[in-house]
Design goal:
Blueprint: H1 2-35, H2 41-61, H3 68-74, H4 87-96, H5 102-105, H6 109-120, H7 122-130, H8 136-155, H9 157-160, H10 171-187, H11 200-207, H12 213-241, H13 244-270, H14 274-278, E1 281-284, H15 293-303, H16 305-317, H17 325-343, H18 345-352, H19 359-364, E2 367-371, E3 395-396
Helix pairs in contact: 1-2, 1-11, 4-6, 6-10, 7-8, 7-10, 8-10, 12-13, 13-15, 16-17
């Protein structure tokens, strides 16, 4: 009996790393925009919440029938919903023969099924009050809606993936699930003062002005991922609307043109990129003034030179671009060298606590600064070295590269 309950938890443990990896970047971007940082205690709570929701969902749909046709022909109890409230009492009484002693009840499957339905959404009530800061009535409505989603998922046969419902829609489950969430909401109340405060506004005032290595890395990865997705969609649509050979012929030129737009023209015009904008960063001079197009162009040429060389190597490799053979063999090695010199520079500057950031920032007099909310007053930098990155209001940073 307990194996049936443990199987969904084991599956959740297996699937959770994939789910966490899929939402890592969006969650980090949201953290920077809402709290000014992507780490801290709220992140641990968030991912525990994701794991709990995954485990709770799997608990309601697993185990899945192995043979759909045989299951639908053999099992008929789930075809009609159970709409009688508190019918679980009669089930327990029938299984126990009227003996309501603890020793008798602990060995009955209906007892454990009832308890599981009661505690299934109990953590949800805790998360709704502590993490999402929901009041009692909205939390109760959300818990009921969650339980209703689970029950309809069961009754529709995993939203009609299966030819028949393999679990019954039970009104008692709605009652017990919602009651469990309400119990969790009330139970966490006395402990709220003992738990770390979940206050996004206070965190944003404290951390929003800090330019950390992870924040800059996330902006770069977001730009690279966004450019790659747009390029892939563009050449895919080109190939579908014309022909496969046309898509292949224009793939690299289209990618290069999109790269110039994404990594050079947008920063030159708006002093930011889509990735930087996502985490509330923009480019400025060390004194806080807006850099001119020449400075931004020089920065783009230096910062994205590894990408340009890698792209040239790929074009040579695929036969799209003809260059001398010796140069073609050296391009991959040059790419690695540039990655270490250019993209590794912020990390090295961070480790050495350099006051003026990476070398290409000093040469071009351009630096990442934080875009703060109108009227926000960030906490002053803690270290003298961080003051090098603090431009005039309303933009400031803490100097980490």
């Amino acid at each position: 009996m307990f194996r049936t309950y443990l199987l969904p938890v084991e599956t959740a443990v297996t699937l959770f790393p994939l789910v966490a990896a899929a939402i890592l970047v969006p969650a980090a971007v949201r953290g920077y925009r809402r709290r000014g940082r992507a780490g801290g205690w709220p992140v641990l709570v968030f991912y525990s919440f994701v794991f709990y929701l995954l485990a709770a969902l799997l608990q309601t749909v697993m185990p899945l029938p192995a043979d759909t046709e045989a299951h639908c022909a053999r099992v008929h109890y789930a075809r009609e919903p159970q709409l009688e409230p508190f019918a679980f009492q009669a089930s327990i009484a029938s299984a126990s023969g009227g003996d309501w002693s603890a020793g008798q009840l602990v060995g009955l499957a209906p007892t454990w099924t009832t308890l599981l339905n009661l505690v299934l959404l109990l953590p949800l009530g805790v998360y709704l009050r502590y993490y999402l800061r929901q009041r009692f009535l909205p939390a109760t409505v959300l818990a009921f809606a969650t339980s209703l989603f689970f029950e309809t998922t069961q009754y529709t046969g995993l939203w009609f993936v299966y030819a028949c419902p393999y679990r019954q829609f039970n009104v008692d489950d709605l009652i017990l699930n919602t009651a469990g969430a309400v119990l969790g909401w009330w139970a966490v109340g006395p402990f709220l003062r003992l738990l770390p405060v979940n206050d996004p506004d206070r965190e944003r005032r404290r951390y929003a002005a800090r330019i950390t290595l992870t924040r800059r890395l996330l902006a770069l990865l977001t730009d690279l991922a966004g450019w790659l997705v747009v390029w892939t969609l563009a050449i895919g649509l080109l190939g579908v609307t014309t022909s496969w050979y046309t898509g292949r012929q224009y793939a690299l030129p289209l990618g290069a043109a999109l790269g110039l737009l994404w990594f050079w023209l947008l920063p030159a015009v708006f002093a930011t990129t889509p990735g930087k904008r996502a985490v509330l960063l923009r480019l400025a001079r060390y004194d806080g003034a807006r850099p001119g197009p020449l400075r931004l162009t020089a920065r783009a040429c230096l910062l994205y030179s590894p990408l340009a060389v890698a792209w040239t190597a790929l074009a040579h490799r695929t036969g799209t671009l003809e260059i001398p053979e010796l140069a073609g063999r050296l391009l991959p090695h040059l790419t690695v060298l540039l990655v270490l010199l250019v993209w590794g520079a912020p990390g090295l500057a961070f480790l050495l606590r350099r006051e003026r950031g990476a070398w290409y920032e000093r040469w071009t007099d351009t630096v990442d600064t934080a875009v703060l909310e109108r009227g926000a007053t960030p906490v002053p930098p803690r270290r003298e070295a961080e003051k090098a990155y603090a431009p005039a209001a309303p933009n400031a940073s803490d100097g980490e590269p």
